[in-house]
Amino acid sequence: MYTVVLGTLSIGSSLFERSGRFAHWCARTWSRLILVTTGVRVEVSGLERLDRERAYVFVANHQSIYDIPIVFWSLPYQIRIIAKASLGRFPFLGWHLRRAGHILVDRRHPDRAAIFGRASRLMKDGLSLIVFPEGTRSRDGRVAPFKGGSFYLALEAGLPVVPIAIVGSRHVMSKGRLATSPGRVKLIVHEPIDTTGLSGNPRAARAFAARVREIVAPAAESDVAAPAA
């Protein structure tokens, strides 16, 4: 019910308030209700490392579709997602994403110039971005290689990148599963990385992606059982 109500409010507000800030309030409220009603508790640490007056590019590992409400509720910032275009097909959620200024990307035919242009305009308006650079959800909690293309914008514009580790969200709702389970999830905010002066060429982006993954993976995989000897 609250998905319909808040989704309608969000979509309706876009007719009058083009910045998407009220729509994001709807998204955060929806996220909180989703987490509470399904028994998901989120333990957040590291927010003290951030400046509330700055915009960031948040970069997180991806285990579950629940990562979206977890991030929206846990990070007290105006956040827009760079996500796969298929999310736009979900009723209300997809409509909200399109109307509130989120960036939905067709992975088969990405228009990089358009993506960078829209993302740059959002950042100039003081909005932060969240990227899931694995490109898909992990079934077992192990962090896949981060795609270098996810970091071009931050490197070219010299934007600060914040590594985020999400621990345990796959136990709430794993990939390919519709049912949810109550549980506890950790979201760990790591120290922001200053990208001023770093190159945005493909090789540098891949190296930077590997560097960020090395920060995220140890915490994100902390609940993954070690392989049997």
Task: Explain what you see.
36% of the residues lie in helices and 16% in strands. With 229 residues, it is of the alpha/beta class. The chain has a 7-stranded mixed sheet with strand order 1-7-6-2-5-3-4, sandwiched between helices. Strand 3 (79-84), helix 4 (93-99) and strand 4 (103-105) form a beta-alpha-beta unit. The mean pLDDT is 81.
Helix and strand content put the structural class at: alpha/beta
Number of domains: 1
Q: Residue ranges: pLDDT <50 for 5 or more in a row?
A: none
**Percentage of residues assigned to helices:** 25-40%
The CATH architecture assignment turns out to be 3-Layer(aba) Sandwich
Q: What is the succession of H and E elements?
A: HHEEHEHEHEHEEH
Ends distance: 49 Å
CATH class: Alpha Beta
The average pLDDT is 81
Proportion of strand residues: 15-25%
* Largest sheet: number of strands, sense, barrel closure: 7 strands, mixed
| The CATH H-level homologous superfamily | Glycerol-3-phosphate (1)-acyltransferase
By DSSP (H or I, 4+ residues per run), the number of helices equals 7
Q: What's the gyration radius in Å?
A: 17 Å
Counting DSSP E segments of at least 2 residues, the number of strands comes to 7
Strand order of the largest sheet: 1-7-6-2-5-3-4
Fill in the CATH topology. Glycerol-3-phosphate (1)-acyltransferase
Tertiary shape: globular
